[in-house]
# Entry
Amino acid sequence: MGIRVQKFGGRSMAGDLRLAALWVAEVYEEGHQVAVVVSAPAGETDSLLRSIPPGSGGDHEARRREIDALLVTGELKASALMALTLQDLGLPALSLHAYQAGLVAEGSFGDGQPLPGIGDRVKDLLAHGKVPVVAGFQAITQEGDWITLGRGGSDLTAVVLAHALGADLCEILTDVPGVYTHDPRSQRRQAQLLSHLTYEDMLDLAERGARVLQKKAVEYAREKGVLLQVRSTFAPGPGTLIGQAFTSKPGSPTGKTGWIG
# Structure
C-alpha cells in the first residue's frame, strides 16, 4: 500500500473530531501509511486576531513576527486534540509542530513560502507504523522563527508534505462534497459537482473567488505534480480530483481511472 496525506479544514476540526478521525482510521486500516494535517477549528484564528492589542507604532516586522507566533497556537492545539482522538480509536498517532516536522519557509511573516523537503522524523514515524499529525498553516524560518503560510495555509502544508513523502494522494477534507461550478451555499440551483479538474481549472476558479483550496497550494501541487482530492468529512462521496491530465489509466489509488498527479 502507498502513502496518503489527509488534511482536515477548520469546520472539520470544530465539531466532533471522531468524524474526521474515522476517515484516518479507514485509510490506516486499509494498510496505507497516512500522515494527517490539521487546521485550527473554524473561528479560532479570527479569535486570536481579535485578541491582538491595537497598535501601529514600533517595528512592523517585529510586530508581524509576534502575530505569527500567536497564530500558530490554533493549529498546535488542533494537532494535539486530533492525535488524542486517534489514540482513542487505537491508532498510534503523534502530534508534530512545524519544527518537529522539519517544515521550513522563507519570505514575509504572514505569507511564508515553503522550501522543498521536510525533516526525517515524519518519514521515520510512517516507516514504523505511526500516524503523524502535523499542525498546518505554519513553518519555521531558517533563523528558527515561526512563520505562517497565509490564509488557507494548511492546504499548502498538506501539499508540501505529500510531495516530500511521495504520497499517492493528498486528500483535502472539508465541509463540502467537492468542487462545484458555482458556490453551492448561494447558488445551489446552478452549482454542479465536478468529478475532476486540471490544476489550471482549479486556479481559474480560485481567481473567480472559489475558496475551496488556497491558490498557493494549487500552484505548488501543479509544480510538483501532487494529485489532490477534495471531499467532505461529513458524508461519503468521490469528491473532486485535481491533477495534470485525464487519461485511460487503470489502477489509480483513488479507485478512479486516469488522474496523473
